[in-house]
Request: fold
Amino acid sequence: MVHDDSRPAPVAPRRRIELDGAKALRLLGSVSLGRIVFTRHALPTVRPVNHVLDGGDIVIRTHEGAALTSRTERAGDPGVVVAYEADAIDPHTHLGWSVVVTGYARLVTDPEDLARCRRLVRPWVDHAMEQAMDQAVRIRPDLVTGVLLTADGHDAPAGV
Reply:
């Protein structure tokens, strides 16, 4: 008898758990890579970036010629609306979590805060870029949503 491996494996029942904002931010802070979504030429644009949480804000690094830098530089109060997403999803089981933060992004202009942000976030692409990643953007979360997908019958991991 020939076994057909082209069929997907049966999927175990799953449970979707909505996370509160504090738990979602804690998970977001447990990883270093995410995706920022902003508007460029009236269209949504997505960029992978690394981040840190700093006093409840998400801080990322960018460079002077970046589209996000110019958008946040021109923004007045409270900044430019962005979304930020990070996740940890197992590629085989498809179990894990995803967090989406919507808020206002502002270019960090205070010299002391900028120096601090540069120490906190080491850009993952800096060595491959022609431009120095010498700018920082601070995202103040306004709406934080998160979802945990776990196998049915299993509790959420500790700390969630």
User: Anything to note?
Assistant: The first helix runs from residue 21 to 28. The radius of gyration is 19 Å. The mean pLDDT is 84. Strands lie at 14-19, 33-40, 43-54, 57-62, 80-89, 96-107, 135-151.
